[in-house]
Each structure stands twice: as structure tokens, then as C-alpha cells.
Amino acid sequence: MRIARFSIDGNVAFGVVEGEPSDQGGPVVDIIKGHPFAEFERSGQKIPLSKVRLLPPVLPNKVIGIGRNYAEHAAELGNEVPDVPVVFFKPSTSVIGPGDPIAYPSFSSEVHHEAELAVVIGRMCREVPRERVADVILGYTCGNDITARDAQRREKQWARAKGFDASCPLGPWVETDIDLERAADLGVMCTVNGEQRQLGRTSEMVRSIEDLIVHITEAMTLLPGDVVLTGTPAGVGPLTVGDEVAVTIEGIGTLTNKVIKRG
User: Fold this and answer.
1) Element (H, E) at 155
2) How far is the first Cα of the chain from the last one, in angstroms, to the nearest whole number?
């Protein structure tokens, strides 16, 4: 199911998105009782999706990014595939939702898009064995690892380059009906102003979702709502103020954001 987090009339709630844009009246959100990290009930109170504001589908304690997990992307930036996964963090303050603006950071003149499959953790976990990885995943969403590429090159350490405010769009919802086998071969696309920039498949990842979860949880505890960004295919490129960037992942949906000048 598609679990969205949204606001309406100043109230924030989770709900299950039902229907498609082609349906008469369009999709609706069935508000749930409770939250998606435990058993919940649908309330039966349904609101047209067009009447709500979609928020980031989760509020992660931490976002864990994986660098250079697609060989062609590593090569396009002049890098080799590392012997072990490159792990970095994006703070919770970097997270925005669908339709929210990406404010161009003042310290950069070369901001890039990076379309990624995002794994949403469903339960507290650490030292997860490979055979239990599926048990700790709530579902998947679209992610955009917005990166200040010039700062990344200049500063070496990636905290500012990848952690600035609004650098982690997530959404539009969490799709829970994708298993690990299917997640291992999903189409990932990025467009800018309607023009295709990135097109790849998660089957091109150097290390699988299982590999990544095992590797990360050897070192740290993951909490419900934490997000793992699994890397980006080749084709990353610049964004400018006024651009509309969209990340589409097969079986999930499309996450769209516009780039604005930081006020």
C-alpha cells in the first residue's frame, strides 16, 4: 500500500492512498488510526488527495547515504568503485517533501540532482543478518540526494555538500508492497524541466539493499523512519534556479520539486 503523510486544515496525519489519477474524482487518502510503524486501522474517512498537502512521508532521525554505488556514476565523476560502501549522513533538517522548494545554497555554484531509491526502515534494528533484512524495511520511496558538487570537491568531507537545508527531497509516499526481489530491479529516472537526465535500474547497484543494511547496522542502530539512500545512476547534472526536477521510480511514483533562490 501507499502510505502518505499529509496536512489538512493545520492537522498532520498518515493515510493510505487509494486510486489513480485516471479514476473518477482522482485518488483519495484514507486516514489511518495510529502510525505506520505499528499495526493500524483505516478510519474510513477519505479525503481527495488533491485537497491535502503531501509532507515528507517520514521524519527520519537520520538519513544514511551511500556514495558511488553505481559503477557508471562513479566513473562519470572520475572515481573508482570503492572496496567498501561509502557511507555519509544527511541531517533531518535536509529533508523536504513533494512540492517543497529546493533552496539553492549560497556557498555553491554547482548543485546537482541525484535520483535514488530510498529505503524506509520500519523497526529499531542493529546487527541485522542478511536473512532478516526484509523484516526491518517498512517500504520504499523516491529520494533526491541534492549535492553541492563544487563544495564536495573542495571540502573533501561531504557534510555541507550533501547536508544543507532542503538537500533531501523524499516522497511522494512510502510504497510497502515492494519486496526485496522486486526492489532489486526497479527503473530510476530523473527529469529536469521535462527533459530526461538520468535513467537506470536498481539492478545496476554495486551492492544490494541487503548488503547495505547489513553493513550499516554493523555500526549503528537504525530507528523507525530512518532512511537509506541507495546511490544514484549515471547522468547527474546541474540544477539552476527555476528548474523543476522530478524523480520517478517504477512502482512507487514521482517526486517533484522546484529550485528557488535562497531568501
Assistant:
1) helix 149-155
2) 38
Q: How many CA atoms lie within 13 A of 135 on its CB side?
A: 10
CATH of region 2-54, choose from 3.20.20.140, 2.30.30.370, 3.30.300.30, 3.40.50.720 = 2.30.30.370
**Which residue type is seen at 51?**
K
Distance CA 86, CA 68 (A): 7
| 8-state DSSP, 148 | E
What's the mean per-residue pLDDT of the chain? 96
| Single pTM value for the model | 0.96
CA distance 4 to 58: 8
Q: Which amino acid is at 235?
A: G
Q: Please write the tens of the pLDDT for every residue from 58-105.
A: 999 999 999 999 989 888 888 888 899 999 999 999 999 999 999 999
Nearest to 138 by CA among 155, 126, 124, 159: 124
Task: Give me the torsion for CA of 10, 16, 19, 22, rounded to 10°.
Answer: 40
Q: Give the model confidence (pLDDT) of 32-59 as tens digits.
A: 998 999 999 999 999 999 999 999 999 9
**Residues 254, 244 contacting (CB under 8 angstroms):** no
The mean pLDDT value for 170-177 works out to: 98
Burial class (CB in 10 A: 0-12, 13-18, 19+), 62: middle
Q: How far apart are CA 204 and CA 11, in angstroms?
A: 41
Class of domain 63-261 as given by CATH: alpha beta
